[in-house]
User: Which sequence fits this backbone?
């Protein structure tokens, strides 16, 4: 990873942190505790992979920074809300997230439920309020809604829940992850690119191939890390999938083959970017980052 | 109530039922159980007060029916998701809704959580996909997001939760309801009117006064019904507010003064409509309906 890429990444992460704080309702607004809990769920945490994808894809077509920033924050708010709801006792029942108590532990379950609900609404608000022209934003809002809903992220969660203790095949496992995490990663890439211009079918197809590859790679690496890392490194409870008898790439393929698969997916992602030339360098590097990450 | 109004109401309710079914993801789509549960939460229930307000306000400026239909379904999906989440054990813990088992009773808590999350996304999708011009729809999407989020419906829920066993003053009680139910009722009225044209400040102000009055009246009548009706008539558990030691208009004002207040608010609502002339007849009649309803 070049130092150029690393400093770009750091600056995006810093900008996103500031924008997220700006786009959340002020903690002086009523109801204050809800707003404080929303900020707790969103700020000061995570690698901001989705915002990085938005900004990296924005480089393809010189997208305006205000729209990119709003798209990045909208996607991150959707992601953050899904984590808050995911961690609740009726779902994964997790007490630790990004090294901090989860929202329902820090506050209570009802607050966690409302924090997630309100963050989802805020995500659509942040994107809808961009100053960019309306014709530009509407397809982006549609994409975000589709990627978040029942044929996207929520649908993936539902399949995940139904799969505990069930012997999934590799294609079934892939479909589950394509919805659960893949849909929002794909939306991040496409939102970034769409912030710059209306995409051609060829461009969408290339970005789809890239997104699908990094989405799966992301999950394969997640499964590998869950199997080998400890909770302190991950900032969340490790080994939960095995404990919950959830199907994973590691349980289906073994560790070494899972790692190989991640590398292959990374190469696929790189190849898909060829049509974009040098403007895709950051997307290229992000694929590496996703496969090489340690937490 | 004229027979004209009653047949209009019936036809809107029937049309909305068909549209809601069309705008939900098909139950043949994966994940099937989630889609079945979303339909269970939305279809075949409720008085469709919010869609009625959308269509009645649409009469003011001859709004196109496709946009009205989508706005009505979007608002109703937001309302339906809020009921699903509200009924969960960590919130109101209710087993009965519209005379049927609540979603977490019929399915399970995790499904109820996801049904609500996915319905919210679906609401934004349904509105964003309308064929109306983008400049028209974006302010509507912004309004829907604001009315649903932390300074709207979710915020009202948070205040409601924090108010159990707390001695609220009348203004505090009013603020809570203005967010919890008022924001989405207001959005229904404005979305209907905005489907027809861009509103002047005077028009927004008049519709705000109307919405605020019927919103409060709606809640006052709710409190009265909760105090006097039985569960079979209401289709939900009666007497819960008193049992939960929640502040209500009845506990603050008494029954007879609460009924008087509802009548006064109805008159306020009627007066606010004067500037619109005869095109506001259905909005006028809906104010009556809200105050005179028995369930």
Assistant:
């Amino acid at each position: 990873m070049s130092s150029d890429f690393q400093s770009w990444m750091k600056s995006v992460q810093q900008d996103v942190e500031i924008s997220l704080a700006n786009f959340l309702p002020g903690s002086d607004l009523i109801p204050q505790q809800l707003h404080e809990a929303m900020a707790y769920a969103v700020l000061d945490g995570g690698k901001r992979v989705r915002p990085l994808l938005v900004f990296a894809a924005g480089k393809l077509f010189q997208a305006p920074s205000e729209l990119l920033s709003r798209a990045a924050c909208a996607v991150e708010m959707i992601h953050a809300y899904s984590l808050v709801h995911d961690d609740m006792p009726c779902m994964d029942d997790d007490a630790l997230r990004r090294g901090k108590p989860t929202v329902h532990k820090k506050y209570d379950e009802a607050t966690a439920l409302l924090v997630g609900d309100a963050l989802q609404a805020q995500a659509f608000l942040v994107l809808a309020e961009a100053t960019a022209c309306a014709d530009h934003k509407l397809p982006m809002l549609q994409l975000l809604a589709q990627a978040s809903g029942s044929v996207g992220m929520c649908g993936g969660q539902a399949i995940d829940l139904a799969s505990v203790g069930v012997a999934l095949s590799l294609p079934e496992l892939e479909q589950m992850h394509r919805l659960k995490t893949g849909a929002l990663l794909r939306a991040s890439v496409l939102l970034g690119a769409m912030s710059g211009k209306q995409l051609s079918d060829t461009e969408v197809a290339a970005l789809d191939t890239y997104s699908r590859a990094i989405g799966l790679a992301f999950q394969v690496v997640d499964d590998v890390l869950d199997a080998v890392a400890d909770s302190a490194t991950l900032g969340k409870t490790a080994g939960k999938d095995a404990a919950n008898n959830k199907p994973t790439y590691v349980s289906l393929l073994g560790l070494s083959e899972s790692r190989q698969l991640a590398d292959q997916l990374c190469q696929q992602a790189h190849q898909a970017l060829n049509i974009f030339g040098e403007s895709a360098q950051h997307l290229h590097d992000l694929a590496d980052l996703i496969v090489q990450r340690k937490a």
